[in-house]
Design goal:
With 227 residues, this protein is mainly alpha-helical. It is built from twelve helices and four strands, in the order αααβααβααβααβααα. A two-stranded antiparallel ribbon has the order 1-2. Strands 3-4 form a two-stranded antiparallel sheet. Helix 2 crosses helix 3, helix 7 packs across helix 10 and helix 8 packs across helix 9. The N terminus is likely disordered.
Length: 227
Protein backbone atom coordinates (compact mmCIF):
# COMPACT_ATOMS: atom_id res chain seq x y z
CA UNK A 1 0.00 0.00 0.00
CA UNK A 2 2.81 2.43 0.93
CA UNK A 3 4.66 1.95 -2.40
CA UNK A 4 1.40 2.61 -4.25
CA UNK A 5 0.88 5.83 -2.29
CA UNK A 6 4.45 6.91 -3.05
CA UNK A 7 3.97 6.16 -6.74
CA UNK A 8 0.77 8.20 -6.70
CA UNK A 9 2.49 11.13 -5.02
CA UNK A 10 5.40 11.04 -7.46
CA UNK A 11 2.95 11.03 -10.38
CA UNK A 12 1.03 13.95 -8.87
CA UNK A 13 4.24 15.92 -8.23
CA UNK A 14 5.47 15.30 -11.79
CA UNK A 15 2.16 16.58 -13.13
CA UNK A 16 2.38 19.65 -10.90
CA UNK A 17 5.88 20.50 -12.18
CA UNK A 18 4.69 19.99 -15.75
CA UNK A 19 1.71 22.31 -15.26
CA UNK A 20 3.91 24.96 -13.69
CA UNK A 21 6.50 24.58 -16.46
CA UNK A 22 9.29 23.93 -13.94
CA UNK A 23 12.53 22.09 -14.62
CA UNK A 24 14.58 21.13 -11.58
CA UNK A 25 17.61 20.32 -13.75
CA UNK A 26 17.90 23.70 -15.45
CA UNK A 27 20.25 26.28 -13.89
CA UNK A 28 18.72 28.94 -11.67
CA UNK A 29 18.26 32.35 -13.29
CA UNK A 30 19.66 35.61 -11.95
CA UNK A 31 22.73 36.47 -9.92
CA UNK A 32 21.73 34.45 -6.86
CA UNK A 33 23.77 35.19 -3.73
CA UNK A 34 26.87 37.21 -4.72
CA UNK A 35 28.33 37.09 -1.21
CA UNK A 36 28.20 33.30 -1.13
CA UNK A 37 29.71 33.03 -4.61
CA UNK A 38 32.51 35.40 -3.57
CA UNK A 39 33.27 33.22 -0.53
CA UNK A 40 33.36 30.07 -2.65
CA UNK A 41 35.41 31.45 -5.57
CA UNK A 42 38.43 33.72 -5.96
CA UNK A 43 36.25 36.69 -6.98
CA UNK A 44 35.29 39.60 -4.76
CA UNK A 45 31.62 40.58 -4.43
CA UNK A 46 32.19 43.51 -6.80
CA UNK A 47 33.79 41.19 -9.34
CA UNK A 48 30.87 38.74 -9.07
CA UNK A 49 28.43 41.57 -9.75
CA UNK A 50 30.47 42.85 -12.68
CA UNK A 51 30.82 39.28 -13.98
CA UNK A 52 27.03 39.04 -13.97
CA UNK A 53 26.92 42.01 -16.33
CA UNK A 54 29.23 40.08 -18.68
CA UNK A 55 27.05 36.98 -18.30
CA UNK A 56 23.88 38.91 -19.19
CA UNK A 57 25.53 40.35 -22.28
CA UNK A 58 26.68 36.92 -23.48
CA UNK A 59 23.44 35.12 -22.64
CA UNK A 60 21.29 37.70 -24.45
CA UNK A 61 23.43 37.93 -27.59
CA UNK A 62 21.15 35.65 -29.63
CA UNK A 63 18.26 34.63 -27.37
CA UNK A 64 17.67 36.51 -24.13
CA UNK A 65 16.98 33.44 -22.01
CA UNK A 66 19.43 34.02 -19.16
CA UNK A 67 21.53 31.02 -20.18
CA UNK A 68 24.74 30.50 -22.18
CA UNK A 69 24.97 27.70 -24.73
CA UNK A 70 28.15 26.24 -26.22
CA UNK A 71 28.15 28.47 -29.31
CA UNK A 72 27.73 31.65 -27.22
CA UNK A 73 30.51 30.41 -24.93
CA UNK A 74 33.00 29.74 -27.75
CA UNK A 75 32.48 33.10 -29.38
CA UNK A 76 32.51 35.22 -26.22
CA UNK A 77 35.36 33.67 -24.24
CA UNK A 78 37.56 32.12 -26.89
CA UNK A 79 36.85 34.49 -29.79
CA UNK A 80 36.12 31.62 -32.17
CA UNK A 81 33.04 30.87 -34.23
CA UNK A 82 34.47 27.64 -35.63
CA UNK A 83 32.06 24.75 -35.75
CA UNK A 84 34.31 22.82 -33.38
CA UNK A 85 36.98 23.83 -30.89
CA UNK A 86 38.20 20.94 -28.77
CA UNK A 87 39.74 23.17 -26.09
CA UNK A 88 36.70 25.48 -25.81
CA UNK A 89 34.31 22.53 -25.91
CA UNK A 90 36.21 20.73 -23.15
CA UNK A 91 36.16 23.88 -21.00
CA UNK A 92 32.41 24.23 -21.57
CA UNK A 93 31.89 20.57 -20.66
CA UNK A 94 33.71 21.05 -17.34
CA UNK A 95 31.79 24.27 -16.61
CA UNK A 96 28.48 22.51 -17.38
CA UNK A 97 28.41 20.45 -14.18
CA UNK A 98 24.77 19.43 -14.76
CA UNK A 99 25.61 18.34 -18.33
CA UNK A 100 22.45 19.81 -19.88
CA UNK A 101 24.14 21.90 -22.59
CA UNK A 102 23.63 25.37 -21.05
CA UNK A 103 25.23 27.40 -18.26
CA UNK A 104 23.50 29.39 -15.56
CA UNK A 105 25.35 32.26 -13.88
CA UNK A 106 26.59 30.24 -10.91
CA UNK A 107 28.19 27.59 -13.13
CA UNK A 108 29.67 30.36 -15.28
CA UNK A 109 31.20 32.15 -12.28
CA UNK A 110 32.50 29.01 -10.59
CA UNK A 111 34.06 27.82 -13.83
CA UNK A 112 35.74 31.12 -14.61
CA UNK A 113 37.17 31.29 -11.11
CA UNK A 114 39.93 28.83 -12.05
CA UNK A 115 40.95 31.10 -14.98
CA UNK A 116 41.46 34.11 -12.71
CA UNK A 117 45.14 35.20 -12.82
CA UNK A 118 45.59 34.74 -9.07
CA UNK A 119 43.62 31.51 -8.73
CA UNK A 120 45.55 28.81 -6.80
CA UNK A 121 47.88 26.89 -9.08
CA UNK A 122 46.55 23.57 -7.73
CA UNK A 123 43.09 24.49 -9.05
CA UNK A 124 44.57 25.23 -12.46
CA UNK A 125 46.52 21.95 -12.43
CA UNK A 126 43.40 19.97 -11.51
CA UNK A 127 41.28 21.66 -14.19
CA UNK A 128 43.93 21.30 -16.91
CA UNK A 129 44.34 17.61 -16.06
CA UNK A 130 40.60 17.11 -16.55
CA UNK A 131 40.83 18.94 -19.90
CA UNK A 132 43.27 16.37 -21.24
CA UNK A 133 41.57 13.40 -19.59
CA UNK A 134 39.12 13.11 -22.47
CA UNK A 135 37.80 9.72 -21.36
CA UNK A 136 37.35 10.82 -17.74
CA UNK A 137 39.27 7.82 -16.48
CA UNK A 138 41.70 9.56 -14.11
CA UNK A 139 44.69 9.43 -16.44
CA UNK A 140 45.88 10.89 -19.73
CA UNK A 141 46.79 8.52 -22.54
CA UNK A 142 49.13 9.23 -25.44
CA UNK A 143 46.30 9.46 -27.98
CA UNK A 144 44.48 12.03 -25.83
CA UNK A 145 47.56 14.24 -25.72
CA UNK A 146 47.86 13.98 -29.49
CA UNK A 147 44.21 14.94 -29.96
CA UNK A 148 44.63 18.09 -27.88
CA UNK A 149 47.94 19.03 -29.53
CA UNK A 150 46.58 18.56 -33.06
CA UNK A 151 43.39 20.49 -32.23
CA UNK A 152 45.30 23.35 -30.62
CA UNK A 153 47.70 23.63 -33.56
CA UNK A 154 44.79 23.66 -36.02
CA UNK A 155 42.98 26.39 -34.08
CA UNK A 156 46.08 28.58 -34.02
CA UNK A 157 46.75 28.05 -37.72
CA UNK A 158 49.99 26.13 -37.16
CA UNK A 159 50.86 23.01 -39.12
CA UNK A 160 53.37 20.42 -37.97
CA UNK A 161 54.16 17.14 -39.66
CA UNK A 162 52.74 14.12 -37.89
CA UNK A 163 56.24 12.76 -37.31
CA UNK A 164 57.16 15.97 -35.45
CA UNK A 165 54.04 15.78 -33.29
CA UNK A 166 54.79 12.14 -32.46
CA UNK A 167 58.34 13.09 -31.49
CA UNK A 168 57.08 15.83 -29.16
CA UNK A 169 54.63 13.44 -27.50
CA UNK A 170 57.28 10.72 -27.17
CA UNK A 171 59.64 13.14 -25.40
CA UNK A 172 56.81 14.35 -23.16
CA UNK A 173 55.93 10.82 -22.07
CA UNK A 174 59.61 9.91 -21.61
CA UNK A 175 59.92 12.83 -19.16
CA UNK A 176 56.52 12.55 -17.50
CA UNK A 177 55.52 8.87 -17.39
CA UNK A 178 57.80 7.98 -14.47
CA UNK A 179 55.75 4.87 -13.68
CA UNK A 180 56.27 3.74 -17.29
CA UNK A 181 52.72 2.46 -17.65
CA UNK A 182 51.93 4.35 -20.87
CA UNK A 183 49.77 7.01 -19.25
CA UNK A 184 50.06 10.17 -17.18
CA UNK A 185 48.32 10.24 -13.81
CA UNK A 186 47.48 13.29 -11.71
CA UNK A 187 50.75 13.22 -9.76
CA UNK A 188 52.86 12.93 -12.92
CA UNK A 189 50.87 15.75 -14.54
CA UNK A 190 51.47 18.00 -11.51
CA UNK A 191 55.23 17.35 -11.69
CA UNK A 192 55.23 18.13 -15.42
CA UNK A 193 53.40 21.43 -14.89
CA UNK A 194 55.75 22.53 -12.13
CA UNK A 195 58.68 21.76 -14.45
CA UNK A 196 57.03 23.54 -17.39
CA UNK A 197 54.72 26.32 -16.06
CA UNK A 198 53.96 27.46 -19.62
CA UNK A 199 51.60 24.46 -19.86
CA UNK A 200 49.15 26.53 -17.80
CA UNK A 201 49.30 29.53 -20.13
CA UNK A 202 45.82 28.81 -21.48
CA UNK A 203 44.48 28.53 -17.93
CA UNK A 204 44.57 32.29 -17.32
CA UNK A 205 42.27 34.99 -18.69
CA UNK A 206 43.95 38.28 -17.80
CA UNK A 207 40.85 40.41 -18.42
CA UNK A 208 39.09 38.79 -15.46
CA UNK A 209 41.33 40.86 -13.19
CA UNK A 210 39.89 44.01 -14.80
CA UNK A 211 36.25 42.89 -14.88
CA UNK A 212 35.07 45.71 -12.58
CA UNK A 213 36.66 48.25 -14.93
CA UNK A 214 35.07 46.69 -18.02
CA UNK A 215 31.62 46.45 -16.42
CA UNK A 216 31.54 49.13 -13.69
CA UNK A 217 27.89 50.26 -13.83
CA UNK A 218 26.44 47.49 -11.68
CA UNK A 219 29.27 47.74 -9.15
CA UNK A 220 28.62 51.43 -8.60
CA UNK A 221 25.07 50.57 -7.55
CA UNK A 222 25.99 47.50 -5.54
CA UNK A 223 24.00 46.76 -2.41
CA UNK A 224 26.89 44.78 -0.92
CA UNK A 225 30.27 45.98 0.31
CA UNK A 226 33.39 43.93 -0.25
CA UNK A 227 35.10 42.89 2.94
Amino acid sequence: MVPQCLDGFQHFFAKLLSCCDLDLHRPARGIGDPERLARETVFSVSEIEALYELFKRISSAVVDDGLINKKDFRLALFRTNRGESLFADRVFYLFDTKHIGVLGFEEFARGLSVFYPNAPIEQKIDFSFKLYDLKQQGCIEREQVKQMVVATLAETGMNLADVVIEEIITKTFAETDTKQDGKIDKEEWRNLVYSHPSLLKNMTLQYLQEITITFPSFVFHSQVDDT
